[in-house]
Amino acid sequence: MSRERKKFGDEGEDIAADYLRNKNYHILGKKVRTRIGEVDILAQEGDTIIIVEVKAKADASRGTPEEMIDWKKKKKLVRLAREVQQRFPKYSLRIDVVAIEGEEIRHHVNAVQEN
Predict the structure, then answer these.
(1) Tens digit of pLDDT for each residue in 52-62?
(2) Which class is domain 3-112?
């Protein structure tokens, strides 16, 4: 990954974290590493722990940020959720997606579910 793309992704995660804070979510961590992979943002809302996947794009000329989350990514997010659930057994858990496209922010609550 180029430095420019990484910087853009990091900025997207910062924007998403600020957005979630403004919605009264408590940010537990960013870039949280697990055995399975990395959680972009780990947040808490009441008694729910939230894995937040952030996708940022400058524009939709090559598809929306949401379209970047394919079945492989969803499967990995579910595996991440299982691991995070072991760390927080007394909390419910969900997976949200924050899509950033230019200046627009879209928050998809419970966007990925285990089937």
Answers:
(1) 999 988 877 78
(2) alpha beta
